[in-house]
Structures are given as C-alpha cells and as structure tokens.
C-alpha cells in the first residue's frame, strides 16, 4: 500500500510530509505495536482534516488521527496517513464560571485542568497520563482513572462535541437542531442508527449483556450502551464516538461538564494479610467515604517496600500473601473530613491489620503514600531486562470476583515465567492493571506471550469481566471483542462502523478485527542503543514539556530514531543519520525538563549533550579548556564586540550573520538583528566586608548583555545589591569573579574538558570565598545557579565532596526568604506576568520567583502554557526557529492583555520572551526593587 501523489498532494500538499525522519519518528506511540506511515499530515484547521479525509477516500488510503500518542493498545498507528491533530488544536475555553469547559483535541488534560484550577473545578476523567494525554485521546478511549469510576468518565461528563465524519460532514451536537441536521445531511447514518437502537432494545439478551458489561469500567468495542441510554440518533452517535478510537470520525471540539475540586483530603495505606481481606472490605470503605481505593498485590508490595517513602513497618514486612489498599477520602469541608476519617477508622479497626494504619492530611506524607502506588510503573518498567517490552494491561471484573481474579492471574504469571509481573489497580471499580516484560523479538518468548494472552482472556471472561477497562481495545484486544460481547452485539458494532465509515479508511485494524492473530502482528521491539536511554518505554510523557516538540523532534522521538537505525535498511538508516544532527541534537534546548516528566527518569537533554561531546574533536575540546582558562579576556572581547555591534543597523547585522551562517554553520554563527542587546555592565568589583552574610556570584549573562531598556542602572546586579543592603545584608564578591563562569555554556555544548577546567576554577575561588562552605553562594541568574548547583559532576571526587557542603541559592530564593521579611514594599504594581524558567523548576524555586512578583504587584499571572523558551544561552540565536516554536503557545496566551511588568529570573530567558511577545521582560528583582522605598 502506497500513498499516491494524487488527491492527497492536491488537497493538503503544503502540510504533508513524506520525509523519512518525520514518518519514522512519529510512527511510535506508547504501545508495543509499530506501523510506519507513508505520509504525515499536520492539520491546521478543521477544513484541513476534512480535505485529508476526502483525499484518503479518493486514494483508498487509511488514516489515523494522532494527538498525544500515549495510548497503550495500538490504536494510534497507521501505515497510510498519520494525521497530526495536536499541534494546531490546543485551545481551551472555560465556560459558565468553570461549570463547563470547551476544548480542542490537542490540549493535554493537565492544561485543561490548569485552566479550570482557578475556578476550583477539574475534568471528571483522571488518567495517570494526564501530563501528556490529550482531550482527543480521552474521548477516543473513554478515559477514566483512579477516582472517576463509571460515574465521572468521559462518556458520563460529555456535554457536546463537534464531529467531522469521514464524508466531510461536520456535526455540532450542541445545536438544538443537531438531530435534524444529521438526518438531512447523513440520512443513511441517521436511519441506520435509529434501526440499530430499536434492534438492540428489542433483544432481551442484548440489553442484559449491555447492563452487565457497563456496570464495570469497559472500553472494549463500541459503546453500545449508547443505544440504551439515548433516543435521538445524534445523541447515540455522539456517545458512540466516545471510546471509538478514531474509527468513526474526528472530534474537532468537545465540551465537558466539570466536577468540583475537594480541597481537603486524607490518605492511608492499609496492609492486610491476604488480598481477600482487602476486597471484602471495599464495600464498607466506600460506604465510609473512601473516594480512591488502590490495590497493590504481594508482588507490588515487594517492590515498593524498597522505596525511601516506605514506612519502617512496610520496609520490614516479610511479604508472603499480603496485599495493600491505598485509601483516600476527600471533602469540601474540614469538619466533614474529620467525620469521614472517624468512620473509616472504624472500618479499619475491624480488619485486624498486621500494622496500625493512620490517615494523614499532611501533603508531603500523602504524596509519599501516592508515590508507592504511582512509582510501581517506574520501578518495573525501568528495571526490565534489556530488549524486553513493558506491557501495561488492564481488565475489570465484578468486585465479588476480584480476589479470585488476582489469584488466578498470579498463577498464570508463574506458569508462563513472568516472575517480575505486578498487579495493582483501582479496587473500588474492580479494575486491575498488570505489567509483564516479554521479549517480542524472540519466537519462543512470543509463543509464551500468545499462550498467556489466550489464558488471560479465558480467565477474565470466565469471571464475567471485561478485557479492557480503561486503555481502549486497540489492536491488542480487537480479535476478542466478539468473544466478549457475543455474535449479535458484535454484528451491531460492525454495522456502526459500516454506517459511519463506509469506505473503511479510518484506523482499520483497530477496535474490530476478525483475524484471530491480529494482536500478534506489527509488534514493536526495543533494541538497545545506549544505557542512558534504553529504559525508555516510549510513553510520550516528555513531549508536552519539550521546547522543540512542534519544530523537529521530542525526547521520545530522539530515542526512537536511534532505535530505528537498527531496524531500517542501510540506505534509510544513512538518511536518518544525516537528518539526526539538526532534528535531534542541534534543536534540543538541553533544558532537561523531560527528566521531570519521564516516569523512568531519563534525561534526554543530558544525553544530547553527550552526543554533542562525541562530535567534538580533541582539538575542539582543548580549545574549550583554553576558553575556560582565559574566560576573563574572552568576556572583555565579547562585550567589546557587542558594543561595536550595537552601532550597526539591525538589517546589516542580520544580513552579515545570515551570509556567514550559509558559509560556516548555523550551529556556530548566531543570527542577530535589532533585538540583540548592547554590552552589559561590568560584573561587580571584589569586596570582602566584615560580617558578610553570603557570597555573591553575579552571572556572566548580566555583564554580557545589557539590561532591558526599561531597566535602570546595572539591572539585576544593582537591584539585588539594593534589596540585600536594605535588609542589612552584605556580600562577599570573589576576587576572581571576572574570570569565572558557572560552566553551563561548556556543558550544554558538550565541551566536557572545558567544563571540567572551569568547574575547578570556580570551586577553588568559591571554596575560599565561602570560608570552606560557611557562607552560602547566591547567584542572580537561575540557569547559572543551576549550573553551580551541579558543579560537583565536573570535579574530582575529593573536591566534589567538599562542594557538597556549599549551599548554592538563587537570588529569588534568597530575597524571598531573607530580604522580604525585613523590608517594607511600597505601592504595588497592578499586574505582572511571570515566566518561570526550566532552571527555576530544576532548582525548585518557582514559588520563590512568584513570591517576589507577588510582593511587587496586586495580581500575578503565570501563563498556563508557559514552558522552556528554548533560548538556552545562545541556542535561540543559533536556531531562532526553536525559540519561536517553543514560545508560541505562551505568547498567544499573553496576547491581548497588557501587564504592568513582565518578569523572569534569567537574562537569556528574558531575551527569548521579549523576542516572542514583543514585551520588555526583566528580572523580577528589578521590578521588586523599584517598589521598595530606598532601593532606587
């Protein structure tokens, strides 16, 4: 099957890519299946989607919609057209004071909930993948989660949607005449749905099966409960689309009814002697007010008892047949929470636990308890043997069968050699997850997996359960839908597909498949490429935080491209290698926010730095050492060059640097223009006052680049000195400061030997200045503070140990904690927009940044869609397209509203955000100092 250049190119050729690097890297999702598309279309509008579908029908080519790519069952893949419906469809609009929310399909659940948070509302579905899964996928899979059960899932909280059918018809179900519109526009579909409704309702066996199947969480097949729950064909279609996995149409927009956030919560871990005790207590615990009940089997307990968060009792438990329930109660009222805790304690007291369990309200303690549950995925997936594939599956059974199902699964794991398998899940829903790590490239292991799957299907259906509770049918369970629902309801589902998608172009092979071996085809293997990234499970959690996600690649795609090098013929592998430098290495901001999102702790930014280092010759590495040794002279030369450049007209600078970039390399020569700042002020002169409270390490960036035009004096240096002196705090300025740097420029460029040389210089100077660690070091640029905090990685062992005794503090934290309590702030500004930086996240000082802004203004706004600006020191000048792409959403969110000030905590990021928004960003301490009498 090949995509022709006929209808597709004529319709959407300008947004279609057939580049190998795009097709291969975007092929991967979180499942253990892999299909490579022949074309990738990045839709910009609803009309683009409609035209792509028309072209697909004309060319006879299948289409799969792709958004977050976090699906686990193989439903987001295509060997035809992969249609990107995330990049340009991320809008969120809060309605009715937060009671409802209208979303585009590319918005992540975390983004939607962040928009709702100010109204103390959230979405009903609460899947664990909320950081990365998108609204489109949530609808397509009928997502639920830990707390929502069957009452607050996507199906139940759907208010309306805008649906694009394969024919191109666009149906807005929020309109009062939506049913009549569907009848006129799609008469065969309307009549067919009405007929199926009557057919289902007239069959007692069908209605009984539906009542039983949907008494549980259930995402197997189409949601045929819609034929019982709704009368109008348009409402039936609207709810059939939920859980349809992109096989009936595309959801262009969806409106949800939201649920309130309960501000009070208490959590406890109940360890019982055997799982029956846990399942027998579920009814009483729910009756006493438990909102979440998470089950951990004995194998799970053996894993989590090694965590640092485990209590001494759990850590010392000799686990035999034990199990545990993580129980949480939430309320809107503190007194009501007290009452519920009392009732839950009564239930717990009757269980005869081997160790006492206590409900805690403390946020840190509750987070530790939840880490025991959520960390299971990390532990098992991250520790899997090299070359194996992590499979996370989910089922649901009636509560009365839960204990027996866990026991049967455990025996099946043993019988098939899955000794590292763990079982856990949402106990109050009878919803179990289990993880196994088969090797899918080994024929014998594949036979074992096939036998296990058949046994598991028989086991679950024997307990009258469902083979899919949350993760969608996908490819993995498509051959078993008939077996679960029976011939009649399966025939109804087939007719639904025929009516909505008569040409069969939408996601074939997903959800329904009569081939009994379909789930064993197109399996994805996990070849080893580097120990730094081999743990990657391709979940996609990293993608929403990646600055280059809409420009080139993401951490997931950077890793999968390396894996694909070993799968492809040599000519294609050579093509990928040629593209990899720009697509993966050069356009990575190396901000490492991906490690914060990665469930198995992979730092792809750090890995890209290592690849940059590998590209350098020994001569280049030696040049890095010389640069570090002569940094003071280099800074003088750079500042002089900036002073000269400041006199040159912007167009001339742009023309000259553009020409040089064509001759030399865009990764070496920056592109500069009117927005290039002039020379900054010199760094402060050495000083050693008596009774100094800290050592001040002012950043090179503040000396290299002049402050914003709205700034006064020396920018952040003057502001910081003014604030600290106003609080009676004096600083040591090291004698060697002019020749020192945090080392970040060398580290980010892979100049490892230069980074080591500079780190040794900095250590010697600051070890003396801090009096062997007695005084803290305070730095006025967050990225430089981060670099200093990580200095030990580049020092000899003995010096690294000593550096561990030195406290490195960012200036915003020092001012928030040591200055603000001792100064009076005058008349505040009205509004301030705050841009946190990737380094403020790594340092854990975002709250301190916001606190400084709040001291200076009545209203402080942190954009929901803020992210790393991608400026990354000089990366935004070497590759300005990176910063433009990284800041697009944040700039759009800020557009249309004027603020009295725009602030951040790092000069390079201020430059990036000023370029993105056209607004003058300054260091937050400059704005704060202007509001403190006596500082200016």
Q: In terms of topology, how is this protein built?
A:
Layout: H1 7-12, E1 16-17, H2 20-25, E2 39-42, H3 46-59, E3 63-66, E4 81-84, E5 92-95, E6 100-103, H4 109-117, E7 121-122, H5 135-141, H6 154-157, E8 158-164, E9 170-172, H7 178-185, H8 187-201, H9 204-213, H10 226-229, H11 233-241, E10 250-257, E11 259-260, E12 264-272, H12 275-280, H13 282-287, E13 292-296, H14 298-304, H15 312-315, E14 323-331, H16 334-349, H17 363-382, E15 391-396, H18 402-415, E16 422-426, E17 431-436, H19 443-462, H20 481-500, H21 555-565, H22 570-586, H23 593-597, H24 604-615, H25 618-629, H26 631-645, H27 650-663, E18 694-697, H28 700-704, H29 716-726, E19 731-732, H30 744-749, H31 752-769, E20 777-779, H32 782-789, H33 797-803, E21 808-810, H34 811-819, E22 829-834, H35 838-843, H36 846-856, E23 857-861, H37 875-878, H38 880-886, H39 888-894, E24 901-904, H40 907-917, E25 921-923, H41 924-931
Parallel strand pairs: 2-4, 3-4, 18-19, 18-20, 20-21, 22-23, 22-24, 24-25
Antiparallel strand pairs: 1-2, 5-6, 6-10, 7-11, 8-9, 8-10, 12-14, 13-14, 13-16, 15-17, 16-17
Helix pairs in contact: 7-8, 8-11, 8-20, 18-19, 21-22, 25-31, 29-34, 29-41, 34-36, 36-41
């Amino acid at each position: 099957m090949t995509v022709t250049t006929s209808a597709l190119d004529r319709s959407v050729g300008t947004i279609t890519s057939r580049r190998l690097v795009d097709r291969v890297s975007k092929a991967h999702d979180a499942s253990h299946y892999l299909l490579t598309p022949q074309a990738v279309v990045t839709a910009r509008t609803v009309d683009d989607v409609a035209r792509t579908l028309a072209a697909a029908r004309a060319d006879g080519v299948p289409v799969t919609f792709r958004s977050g790519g976090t699906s686990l069952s193989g439903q987001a893949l295509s060997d035809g057209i992969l249609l990107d419906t995330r990049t340009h469809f991320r809008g969120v609009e809060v309605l009715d004071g937060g009671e409802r929310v209208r979303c585009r399909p590319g918005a992540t659940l975390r983004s939607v909930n962040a928009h709702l948070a100010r109204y103390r509302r959230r979405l009903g579905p609460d899947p664990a993948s909320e950081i990365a899964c998108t609204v489109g996928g949530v609808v397509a899979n009928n997502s639920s989660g830990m707390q929502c059960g069957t009452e607050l899932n996507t199906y139940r909280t759907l208010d309306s949607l805008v649906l694009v059918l394969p024919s191109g018809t666009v149906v807005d179900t929020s309109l009062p005449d939506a049913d009549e519109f569907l009848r006129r526009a799609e008469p065969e579909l309307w009549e067919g749905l009405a007929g199926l409704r009557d057919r289902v309702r007239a069959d007692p066996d069908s209605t009984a099966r539906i009542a039983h199947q949907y008494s549980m969480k259930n995402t197997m097949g189409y949601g045929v409960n819609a034929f019982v729950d709704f009368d109008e064909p348009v409402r039936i279609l609207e709810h059939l689309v939920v859980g349809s996995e992109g096989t009936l149409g595309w959801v262009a927009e969806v409106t949800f009814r939201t649920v309130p956030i309960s501000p009070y919560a208490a959590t406890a871990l109940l360890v019982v002697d055997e799982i029956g005790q846990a399942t027998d207590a579920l009814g009483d615990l729910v009756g006493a007010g438990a909102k979440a009940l998470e089950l951990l089997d004995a194998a799970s307990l053996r894993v989590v008892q090694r965590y640092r968060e485990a209590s001494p009792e759990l850590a010392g438990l000799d686990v035999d047949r034990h199990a545990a329930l993580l129980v949480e109660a939430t309320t809107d009222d503190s007194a009501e929470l007290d009452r519920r805790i009392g009732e839950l304690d009564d239930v717990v007291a009757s269980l005869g636990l081997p160790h006492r369990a206590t409900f805690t309200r403390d946020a840190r303690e509750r987070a530790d308890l939840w880490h025991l549950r959520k960390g299971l995925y990390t532990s098992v997936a991250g520790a899997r043997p090299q070359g194996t594939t992590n499979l996370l599956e989910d089922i649901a059974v009636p509560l009365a069968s839960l204990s027996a199902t866990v026991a049967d699964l455990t025996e099946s794991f043993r019988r098939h050699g899955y000794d590292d398998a763990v079982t856990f899940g949402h106990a109050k829903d009878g919803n179990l997850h289990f993880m196994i790590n088969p090797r899918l490239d080994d024929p014998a292991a594949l036979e074992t997996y096939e036998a296990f799957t058949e046994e598991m299907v028989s086991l679950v259906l024997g307990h009258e359960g469902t083979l899919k509770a949350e993760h969608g049918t996908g490819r993995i369970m498509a051959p078993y839908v008939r077996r679960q629902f029976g011939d009649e309801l399966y025939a109804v589902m087939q007719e639904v597909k025929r009516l909505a998608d008569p040409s069969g172009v939408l996601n074939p092979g997903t959800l329904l498949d009569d081939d009994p071996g379909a789930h064993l085809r197109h399996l994805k293997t996990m070849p080893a490429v580097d120990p730094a990234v081999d743990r990657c499970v391709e979940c996609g959690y990293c993608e929403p935080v990646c600055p280059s996600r809409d420009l080139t690649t993401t951490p997931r795609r950077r890793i999968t491209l390396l894996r694909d090098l070993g799968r492809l013929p040599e000519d294609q592998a050579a093509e990928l290698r040629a593209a990899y430098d720009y697509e993966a290495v050069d356009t990575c901001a190396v901000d490492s926010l991906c490690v914060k999102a990665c469930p198995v702790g992979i730092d792809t930014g750090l890995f890209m730095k290592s690849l940059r280092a590998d590209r350098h010759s020994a001569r280049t590495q030696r040049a890095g050492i010389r640069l570090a040794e002569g940094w003071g002279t280099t800074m003088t030369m750079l500042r002089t060059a900036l002073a000269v450049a400041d006199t040159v007209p912007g167009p001339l600078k742009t023309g000259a640097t553009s020409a040089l970039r064509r001759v030399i390399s865009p990764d070496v020569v920056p592109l500069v223009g009117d927005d290039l700042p002039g020379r900054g002020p010199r760094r402060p002169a050495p000083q050693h006052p008596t009774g100094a409270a800290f050592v001040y390490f002012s950043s090179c960036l503040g000396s290299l680049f002049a402050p914003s035009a709205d700034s006064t004096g020396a920018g952040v240096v003057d502001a910081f000195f003014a604030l600290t002196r106003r609080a009676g705090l004096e600083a040591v300025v090291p004698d060697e400061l002019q020749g020192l740097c945090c080392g970040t420029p060398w580290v980010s460029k892979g100049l490892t030997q230069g980074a080591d040389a500079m780190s040794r210089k900095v250590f010697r100077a600051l070890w003396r200045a801090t009096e062997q660690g007695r005084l803290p070091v305070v730095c006025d640029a967050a990225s430089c503070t981060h670099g200093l905090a990580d200095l030990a990685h580049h020092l000899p062992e003995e010096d690294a140990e000593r550096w561990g005794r030195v406290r490195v503090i960012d200036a915003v934290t020092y001012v928030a904690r040591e200055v603000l309590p001792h100064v009076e702030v005058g008349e505040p500004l009205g509004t301030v927009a705050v841009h946190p930086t990737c380094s403020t996240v790594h340092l854990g000082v975002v709250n301190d940044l916001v606190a400084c802004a709040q001291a200076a203004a009545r209203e402080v706004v942190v954009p929901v869609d803020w992210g790393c600006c991608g400026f990354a020191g000089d990366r935004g000048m070497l590759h300005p397209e990176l910063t433009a792409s990284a800041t697009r959403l944040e700039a759009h969110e800020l557009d249309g509203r004027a603020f009295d000030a725009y602030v951040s905590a790092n000069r390079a990021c201020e430059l990036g955000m000023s370029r993105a928004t056209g607004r003058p960003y300054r260091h937050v301490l400059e704005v704060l100092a202007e509001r403190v009498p006596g500082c200016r």
